[in-house]
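Appendix B. Raw example, untouched.
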Amino acid sequence: MRCDNLFCVYWTEEGCTLDEISLDISGCCECCIYVDIDESTLRKKREEQLRRD
């Protein structure tokens, strides 16, 4: 089982780097550690992406 959460520190282009993960009752990975992105960086990247489309 692999996770595709792009905001987790364990994620790479190939997917989750962990050999095993545990899911909670709602199906979310219990091992996930989210990357903290400040709001200004996130806003800037969203705007850049919207200009590309």
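End of appendix B.
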